């Protein structure tokens, strides 16, 4: 598999890896997150900004020690929902390393991720983030990451949507993937507040 965008090499795993993502507040769509590995060690965190998160255009992904890894920012004005990702803590004039664009045509939605720079990569996100069932494909239609409902291993019970799994294929950067999760959560929140429902991203070129 072709190597994708690397935000932080320390979060690129040689083996398929499943991270547990937990929303730190259940009251407001788009609140903070904590992310743990299979050993229960903290991997990423995103601080909650409280009930006014809907007015926030910028989210910061941090490592367990509070170091800023990635900033995702809503691009305004924009015809479609568009977000941009920046390495570290964004500064004025800094160029983004990727963009996420959501477009809708007669109720059908798709999310495209474009990586800037020499790589010229593009990814498609298909499925329903609101249902915690999404797949991230590269340009060759290979699965690089999946978002799934979390099943409690001891009881075999499916947990609530506030806890879910982020499954990474070997070589796909977990920090980049988590940045995409932040954008999907914001898009889903926009739809929830606008339509009293969740966002569904339906396939554009293949069935899943």
From TrEMBL:
Recorded superkingdom: Eukaryota
Name of the featured protein: LURP1-related protein domain containing protein
Family (UniProt): Belongs to the LOR family.
Entries under Pfam families matching the protein: LOR
